[in-house]
Amino acid sequence: MTPTLRHTPPLTEAEQECLPGATATRRLRLGTRASELATTQAGWVADLLRARGHQVDLVPVRTEGDESTASLREIGGTGVFASALRTALLEDRIDVAVHSLKDLPVAPVPGLVLAAIPEREDPRDVVVARDGLTLAGLPEGAVVGTGSPRRAAQLAVFAPHLQIRDIRGNIDSRVGQVRSGTLDAVVLAAAGLTRVGRIDEATEVLPFVQMLPAPGQGALAVECRDDDEAVTAWCAELDDPDTRACVEAERALLARLEAGCTAPVGAVARLGGATGPDSGGDPRGAMTLTGFADLQGRATRHEVSGADPVSLGHQLADLFLADLASTGTPDPAGAPTAGADHAGNHTTERDT
Ligand SMILES: NCc1[nH]cc(CCC(=O)O)c1CC(=O)O
């Protein structure tokens, strides 16, 4: 193996750019957890980097239980999937970490940067049900497995004839419980099924009007050390600005809501529409951010449109926080902006 740039005195970014073939002399250590989904996602990012001329080695990273508790405490309590990879990155055992964005806590980590958010997969949730059925086609009392309070709360609104059972596990074990007859159906992210090549097993795609995804669902985060300018720049080439704008809005909602409540939250941002003279000069055009939250057993939706992703997220959060503050019955006059697919004022019975 040829010596790497890591063992030579550090070069400035400008010096590296002058070196012919400089990118090929440094092998990138791309960290991945061991699950099929994680290795598939990491492999996809590795291939994108290889297509740009980089040499990439996949590095399996042990789960959080193997790591020092001190480092984990530094990072924070949530995000067990992300913690081990982030620790490995901070300790210079890997150069690049690939995460499912929806599993990544919204709080930034000092020393790390989200160098790229590549183009997202389908953000919707799908159903895998027995006998090719849809949720509407399942009989009264049929059992649907999900470990997600967000999914359970929305199922209670649009499919109240179904029972929810709290389940955990990877894609294979969750679908396996339908195949074995333990469950009538499970709800999963379309993106996960697509990435492992099993999207054809979905029996129904749930539209946003019924089921809003987790903020960031379907998108990946490519994380680097912020002082590693070369790797950060190489990874930044994988960024999709439209996806980044959408997930910024979705995560801004989550960040503001996490400060004010612990409700299950769904959200999706969509670009497009107002690209004409009224679009405020934003070349990305207008964005619409739609959110769901189950606030103390009362499920509500709100929708906002505008140009700035982060302020949209905050605006939407403030609508939910205002709902929460008005502890009495929901105010029908407080309906969202015209055109919203509002499903408010439902009473839910949450099983999880
Ligand atoms: N919480 C688990 C998880 N984290 C990321 C995905 C895959 C979908 C994605 O990348 O958003 C899944 C599986 C699921 O929710 O069904």
From TrEMBL:
<dbReference type="Pfam" id="PF03900">
    <property type="entry name" value="Porphobil_deamC"/>
</dbReference>
<comment type="similarity">
    <text>Belongs to the HMBS family.</text>
</comment>
<protein>
    <recommendedName>
        <fullName>Porphobilinogen deaminase</fullName>
        <ecNumber>2.5.1.61</ecNumber>
    </recommendedName>
</protein>
<dbReference type="InterPro" id="IPR000860">
    <property type="entry name" value="HemC"/>
</dbReference>
<dbReference type="InterPro" id="IPR022418">
    <property type="entry name" value="Porphobilinogen_deaminase_C"/>
</dbReference>
<dbReference type="GO" id="GO:0006782">
    <property type="term" value="P:protoporphyrinogen IX biosynthetic process"/>
</dbReference>
<dbReference type="Pfam" id="PF01379">
    <property type="entry name" value="Porphobil_deam"/>
</dbReference>
<keyword id="KW-0627">Porphyrin biosynthesis</keyword>
<dbReference type="GO" id="GO:0005737">
    <property type="term" value="C:cytoplasm"/>
</dbReference>
<feature type="domain" description="Porphobilinogen deaminase C-terminal">
    <location>
        <begin position="245"/>
        <end position="319"/>
    </location>
</feature>
<dbReference type="GO" id="GO:0004418">
    <property type="term" value="F:hydroxymethylbilane synthase activity"/>
</dbReference>
<dbReference type="InterPro" id="IPR036803">
    <property type="entry name" value="Porphobilinogen_deaminase_C_sf"/>
</dbReference>
<feature type="modified residue" description="S-(dipyrrolylmethanemethyl)cysteine">
    <location>
        <position position="261"/>
    </location>
</feature>
<feature type="region of interest" description="Disordered">
    <location>
        <begin position="327"/>
        <end position="352"/>
    </location>
</feature>
<feature type="domain" description="Porphobilinogen deaminase N-terminal">
    <location>
        <begin position="28"/>
        <end position="232"/>
    </location>
</feature>
<comment type="subunit">
    <text>Monomer.</text>
</comment>
<dbReference type="InterPro" id="IPR022419">
    <property type="entry name" value="Porphobilin_deaminase_cofac_BS"/>
</dbReference>
<feature type="compositionally biased region" description="Low complexity">
    <location>
        <begin position="327"/>
        <end position="341"/>
    </location>
</feature>
<comment type="function">
    <text>Tetrapolymerization of the monopyrrole PBG into the hydroxymethylbilane pre-uroporphyrinogen in several discrete steps.</text>
</comment>
<keyword id="KW-0808">Transferase</keyword>
<feature type="compositionally biased region" description="Basic and acidic residues">
    <location>
        <begin position="343"/>
        <end position="352"/>
    </location>
</feature>
<dbReference type="InterPro" id="IPR022417">
    <property type="entry name" value="Porphobilin_deaminase_N"/>
</dbReference>
